[in-house]
Amino acid sequence: MIAAIIALPALSAAILLSLGNRTNKFGPWLAIGASTGSFLIGFWQFLQMLSRPEEERAVVTTVYEWLAVPAAGFKVNFALQLDQLSISFVLLITFVGTLIHIYSLGYMSHDENPRRFFAYLNLFVAAMLLLVLADNYLLLYVGWEGVGLASYLLIGFWQHKPSAAVAAKKAFVANRVGDFGLSLAIMTMFIVLGSVSFSDVNEGIKGAPAWVSLTLGLLLLLAACGKSAQFPLQSWLLDAMEGPTPVSALIHAATMVTAGVYLIVRSASIFNASEIAQTAVVVVGTISLLMGAVIAAAKDDIKKSLAGSTMSQIGYMILAAGLGPIGYVFAILHLITHGFFKAVMFLGAGSVMHATNDNVDMRRYGGLPKVMIFTTITFFIGYLAIIGIPPFAGFYSKDHIIEAALSHSWWAGAAVLFGAGLTAFYMTRIVVMTFVSKPRWEDDVHPHESPLSMTLPMIVLAIGATSIGIILTQNHIFEHWLEPVTGFVEPEPPFSIQTITIITLSVVAIGVLAAIWQYRKVAKVAPKNVSFVVTAARKDLYGDVMNEALLMRPGQATTKFLNIFDKSVVDGFVNGLGALTTGISARLRRSETGYVRSYAMSIVVGTAILVIALLIVRL
Amino acid sequence: MVNALIRLAEASNQESISFEPFVFWICGSLAVIGAIGMLISHKAVHSALWVALTMMNLAVLYVVQSAPFLGVTQVVVYTGAVMMLFLFVLMIVGVDASDSLVETIKGQRRIGILAGVILVSALVLLLGNSFSIQSAQLSDADSIYGGNVQGIAALLFGKYVLIFELTSALLITAALGAMILAHKERTSPRKTQANMAKELFASGNYQGPLPSPGVYARHNSVDTPALLPDGSVSEISIPGPIVARGVTKKINQSDLNEVQIISEGLGLVSSEEDDKQ
Amino acid sequence: MNPNAYLVLSGIIFSIGALGVLLRRNAIVAFMSVELMLNAANLAFVTGARVWGKLDGQAAAFFVMVVAAAEVVIGLAIIITIFRTRNSASVDEASLLRW
User: Fold this and answer.
1) Residue in chain C lying closest to B115 (CA)
2) Can you give the pLDDT at residue B276?
3) Per-residue model confidence as pLDDT tens digits over A419-431
4) Do C52 and B130 touch (CB under 8 A)?
5) I need a surface site. Which of A158, A227, B147, B159 has the fewest CB within 10 A?
6) What is the CATH number of the domain that holds C67?
7) Which residue among A595, A598, A612 places its CB closest to the CB of B122?
8) Smallest CA–CA separation between B263 and chain C, in Å?
9) Which of A361, A300, A347 is CA-nearest to residue A460?
10) Which parts pass through the membrane (chain C) (predicted)?
11) CB contact under 8 A, A604 and B119
């Protein structure tokens, strides 16, 4: 039954991709059906899990024996693990996924080939479900690569656009770097611990030497950085916005990019065993959350700004996951609330773009509440949620992360507080530029509200963004729910919780006010004379420049050198041999004159030599 | 004659008989002269005759060395059959530039002569002392079967019968091969006389006997064109090459007068009418 | 009579024959030179038969004659065939089989 959660979208994707254009008519509906079915089965499983006592909630189902090398003691089952952590993800993925499927129905209605799009979406959902349901790292890796593939296909969905094709390639390559970390980690697990299943690794890591947990921790962190666009592998996420907006909402905001957080939380026992690895995770999270926020505050492209925000918010989650048992639960909590409010904002952005002829420049928006009220309201709810205004969802999750960070160290706490202020600044900037300010539309743009298929998912998600935080934190439901999987320790911040809330809200208020003051008037064209921070942020904080200087240029130089080496030395040697042979033959063949008498001459000369030799022997 | 040869051969077996050196020196020298003659003759026919000389002398040397059968065979097969075949082929092929002794391959003559000289000296040095023993009595071997011819026959049909059979197969094959090689396949039907006549007249040329040069002229040399009874020149009376060289004799008035006189004498034209004209 | 004299004679005739093959362009003369070389070999055979007192050498010379006859027949036929197509009996003319 658990397998059916994965099988439904996988089957649908297979049908849509293999049967091709014949499925054009019902393709989108089949995809939505598969996704919905997946959600319903997941929800049913969730209810069943609730009905069981706490100790029996986690179940492992072995579908079949997948790989077995008896001689090496290697055995991996195709086994699915349904516990509190994975069911949370299953519900998030299938619920948000289904809503975004429905949204895509409207958004992609003008596209040439929505069937292919839905097939890829289903493929993504199946792979993501496999990722979170796997009971061992190898199966997780399959899902991990599957979502990478789906992400590549969907970023490059409009492959006729060179920018989209390049962005897809970039995302794929950056992800490969992280995937290397994961595959190396899996190999290390097998070599050192003899197994790759979660339970065996959790058991084995307790008795293993310190370097094992450190190595595994750093490798898994690398994997998480690649998939979750964390520093230093963050550069692909902004370019990934070349894909259709539903893709940005589902894959590059709500689900796939959070796979890194899932990986770290799932590997809690490894990180718990190594303080250095944990600190590395916190540092990476801190850097990413600040970088993302700075980038988001400078971009005029609404999707890229939201992408920077995503990077920043995932930085929060990674940071929380690095804090250990006090942070895991809040990382997942923030992940779920973020999934709702970031999805609703991306869908809102898509709706705005849909209304303005696919323009993404926020400097040409403004004055939208009058023409698209649903979009405005739902986006505004998402906005309140992300900056952490109670009682919206973001407040609960982010507040808890700030508490946990403060109880970890002063610098982490300061960073998340500063990040909260930046979040308030850039989100206010987006809202002001997009909705509140005066219209600055292009001449031929006539904004209008999107169809019901688009507004409905936004409304549902907005309701979720409003309520999910308060529901999940009521009486510590979520902490207790996840505690059997990740463990939980109550954070002990240096200040009282009320003080922290007040500090946080003041910081947020400062950010909001600063943004309103700064953007009381919005220019149609981005100003040129800006501080170096803004210039750097507009260039993604030189992430691409760094990659180019550190990796691309040396790589190209090496390639060039090897190419020249191959052409001159290797080819030179081979061609030289050939030329030598041809040269010798060209001279030798001159001896073949075709004259019988020349040949006779060689015979006579040979005879003379033989006779002389005979003579010498006889003498 | 055969008996005389056999007697000569028997006599040569006697160590005491001392004319063998004379025979050797005379015939050997002639053989070498014949060979050299073949080498330096301009004409292939002369070469063939020189070779025949060499072979004849070799035949004598065979006989001297107690091989009368081979001597006779040499004369019959080589001088008689093979050399005649050569001459026949020479008749077919005729004489052409290949008879020229001017060397066309660079260095061939120089290196060839050098190699030849080296080969000769090496062979002479090598063969000059190859036999340490003096000649044995071949007459013993001959006498077992009652003679040289019988002895060879015994060997051919006894010890070497298989080789003998094989050589016969070789000869048959060679005869067949020569037939096939020399055979010319006819690719069109044989022309009949009617065909040839049609071909002849189809070209549209003058087919009657050509007038001979100098007819009605003062000269009968080939460059003098024939004159027709009306005094005009017959172009076809002069051979083509002379026309091509442009050395045809001009016709002058006296020739024409002569023609007229002859014509009048024959009563072909009335002189009065001519005078008026 | 020293039989080595016959061998030396045969060597000289053989060498002259070889020179003929090398230097004469007329295919028929070249052929005659080959015949000459065969005859020189025959002389050596006959001399050997005489020295050893056995007839086997003479039998071998006989076989050489037979083979030479066969060879002449085929060789002359080839020369005629070549002459028919190229109108020349020069061995240098038939030099297409080259680089």
Assistant:
1) C19
2) 45
3) 899 899 988 988 8
4) no
5) B159
6) 1.10.287.3510
7) A612
8) 53
9) A347
10) 6-24, 36-53, 59-83
11) yes
Which neighbouring-strand residues pair with A60? A81
The average pLDDT across A156-179 equals 88
Residues B31 and B272: their CA atoms lie apart, in Å, by: 86
Contact status, residue A316 vs residue A250, Cβ threshold 8 Å: no
Helix (H, G, I), strand (E, B) or coil at A62: strand
CATH 1.20.120.1200 fits B1-94, yes or no: yes
Task: Provide mean pLDDT across the span A390-412.
Answer: 85
pLDDT-derived band at B99, boundaries 50, 70, 90: low
ipTM of model: 0.92
For residue A610, the distance in angstroms to the closest alpha carbon of chain C comes to 14
SS (H, E, C) A365-403: CCCCCCCCHHHHHHHHHHHHHHHCCCCCHHHHHHHHHHH
Looking at beta carbons, which residues of chain C come within 8 Å of B118?
Answer: none
Q: Which residues of B touch C80 (CB under 8 A)?
A: 89, 92-93, 181-182
Residue spans per domain, chain B: 1-94, 210-276
- Whether residue C67 lies inside any domain: the answer is yes
| Chain B neighbors of A604, CB-CB under 8 A | 112, 115-116, 119
Residue A361: φ, ψ to 5°: -85, 115
Tens of pLDDT, residue by residue over C45-84, are: 999 888 888 889 999 999 999 999 999 999 999 888 888 8
Kindly report the pTM of this predicted structure: 0.62
Q: Which of residues 570-609 of A touch B (CB under 8 A)?
A: 593, 595, 597-598, 601, 604-605, 607-608
Hey, of B108, B117, B124, B132, which one would you mutate to test binding to chain A, going by the most A CBs within 10 A of its CB? B108
Comparing CB atoms, the residue among A594, A600, A607 nearest residue C98 is A594
List A65's β-bridge partners, or say none. Answer: A77
Q: Cβ contact (<8 Å) for B123 and C15?
A: yes
Q: Does residue C80 sit within a domain?
A: yes
Q: Name the residue among A47, A51, A251, A228 with its Cα closest to residue A149.
A: A251
Number of domains in chain C: 1
pLDDT score for C92: 81
Q: How far is CA A570 from CA A560, A566, B17, B119, B157, in A?
A: 14, 5, 83, 50, 70
**Residue B70 confidence class, pLDDT cut points 50, 70, 90:** very high
Q: Contact at 8 Å (CB) between B73 and C62?
A: yes
Q: What is the mean pLDDT of chain A?
A: 86
Which of B103, B104, B124, B126 is the best mutation test for A, with the most CBs of A within 10 A? B126
CA A406 – CA A500 distance, rounded (Å): 9
Q: What is the pLDDT of residue B270?
A: 52
The Cα-based distances of A193 to A146, A196, A267, A517 in angstroms read 26, 8, 14, 57
Which chains form contacts with chain A, at 3 or more CB pairs under 8 Å? B, C
Report chain C residues whose CB lies below 8 A from the CB of A600.
18, 21-22
> Is B201 buried (19+), middle (13-18) or exposed (0-12) by CB count in 10 A?
exposed
Chains with ≥3 Cβ pairs under 8 A against C? Answer: A, B
pLDDT band of B268, cuts 50, 70, 90: low
Name the residue ranges covered by the structural domains of chain A.
1-273, 547-618
Q: Which residues of A touch C (CB under 8 A)?
A: 589-590, 592-597, 600-601, 604, 607
* Between residues B218 and A593, the one the model is more confident about: A593
Binding-face residues of C in 65-94 toward B, CB within 8 A? 65-74, 76-81, 83-84, 87-93
